[in-house]
Amino acid sequence: MAFFHVRTYLQQASPNDFDEHLLQSTLHHGPQAIIWQGQQGLVVPRTYAQHPRFKYSLQQLQALGWPLTVRQSGGGVVPQGHGIWNISLAWRQYGRPLDLAGPAYALLCRPLQKAFADVGIKANTQAVEGSFCDGRYNLAIWHQHQAKKIVGTAQVWRRCAPPLTVPSPTRQAGDPSDWHVVLCHALVLIHVDHELVTHYANLVEQTLERTQRYQAQRIVSLNTLNISSEQWLSRLQYHLRQQAVPHDQALSSHSESNHE
After folding, report:
1. Cα three-residue angle 122-128-132, rounded to 5 degrees
2. How many whole angstroms separate alpha carbon 116 and alpha carbon 102?
3. I need a labelling partner for 93 at 20 to 30 A (CA). Which of 2, 38, 56, 213 fits?
4. What letter would DSSP give residue 234?
5. Is residue 124 a contact partner of residue 230, using CB atoms and an 8 Å limit?
6. Averaged confidence pLDDT in the chain
7. Are 6 and 33 within 8 A, CB to CB?
């Protein structure tokens, strides 16, 4: 059984696409998890970058000190910066992405939910209408008589070579034969100004002339709950190290040849 190698980078801000190097690194070094903090700005999916007004939006947000970064995964616009932590997991996975997206989100959310439970918070996977980058695999808590988002999630899959030492499962006709490297990402609100980050997320939508708008009262951060971020981080690191990956992992023949 294989587990994630966990590293933490919270002492200084990293580029907002910092985690995407895991897609390649995982092929060489096995399943990995990083906890990191990005630079002040906003991250959008590739669909936003295809918008005819994206260049204008890019210029406007850059001038305000909130530059845009385009990410590989789906979802919507999300803020980055001090007080917002990212948890990114990467591993090699056998099967169809459409069949396995739900289990991948569950694998990501499980250690997060356990860490919240350890500090007395029940976090459920659910959508929260009005929150930025809403989705049914986000984590929400009950606060001030309503569900509020505290964690957002996204993922991306890329085809890769199979591991050397792991035989593919026995297949019937029509079964999938592909392996992928998976990057599954969570954004956790630790200590943020809810009004401020929501304002800039809305500004992206406004400059793109999209109708979507977000509400600050639909999100919550850890400090609002009077929970120590250091204590929660310790529990998260513990549970990430206990989280097994779906398959035993080994270097592929392709990745080994890159080391020669």
Report:
1. 115
2. 21
3. 38
4. H
5. no
6. 90
7. yes
pLDDT band, very low/low/confident/very high, at 178 (cuts 50, 70, 90): confident
Rounded CA gap, 221 and 189, in Å? 5
Which backbone phi and psi does 205 adopt, to 5 degrees? -60, -40
Both tokens assigned to 120: 């007395």
Q: Long-range contacts for 212-217 (Cβ within 8 Å, ≥24 apart)?
A: 212/76, 214/130, 214/131, 214/132, 215/130, 215/131, 217/130, 217/146, 217/148
CB 111 within 8 A of CB 243: yes
Q: Which of 21, 49, 48, 58 is nearest to 36 (CA)?
A: 21
Cβ neighbours of residue 111 closer than 8 Å, sequence gap 6 or more: 236, 239, 240, 242, 243
Say how far apart CA 42 and CA 16 lie, in whole Å: 8
In the structure encoding, which two tokens stand for residue 205, read together? Answer: 């939508």
How many residues in total does the chain contain?
Answer: 260
In tens, the pLDDT along 222-236 reads 999 999 999 999 999
**Tokens (6 digits) for 250:** 């080994």
Whole-angstrom distance, CA of residue 183 vs CA of residue 189: 20
Tokens of 219: 């999100």
Amino acid present at 186? A
**Contact status, residue 43 vs residue 80, Cβ threshold 8 Å:** yes
CB 78 within 8 A of CB 152: yes
Say if CB 57 and CB 158 are below 8 A apart: no
Model confidence pTM above 0.85: yes
